[in-house]
Design brief:
Layout (H helix, E strand, L loop, with lengths): L4 E5 L11 E5 L7 E4 L5 E4 H26 L2
Antiparallel strand pairs: 1-2, 2-3, 3-4
The protein binds zinc ion (ZN).
The site of zinc ion (ZN) has 8 residues, from loops.
């Protein structure tokens, strides 16, 4: 039996152990469950993870713009 899982780094840490590493199936079905590679907590489905990977850089940029705007008198 071959191991069809791989590891990825998530932008958000595991709520249980704080690890950013997750383990998921290489098949990448949207319904596949993604687990924390450190404590095996369920982090969500692959579609959740993909959404988070796409949205995170955008929200960080928005936060930065907001910070700059707040600095103006
Ligand atoms: Zn964990």
């Amino acid at each position: 039996m071959s191991d069809l899982s791989e590891e990825m780094r998530m932008p958000t840490p595991c709520p249980d152990c704080g690890s950013h590493r997750v383990r998921l199936s290489q098949i990448h079905n949207p319904e596949d469950k993604v687990f924390c590679s450190s404590c095996n907590s369920l982090r969500g489905t692959y579609s959740d993870l993909k959404k988070e990977l796409i949205e995170e850089p955008k929200s960080q940029k928005e936060a930065l713009i907001e910070e700059v705007a707040n600095r103006k008198p």
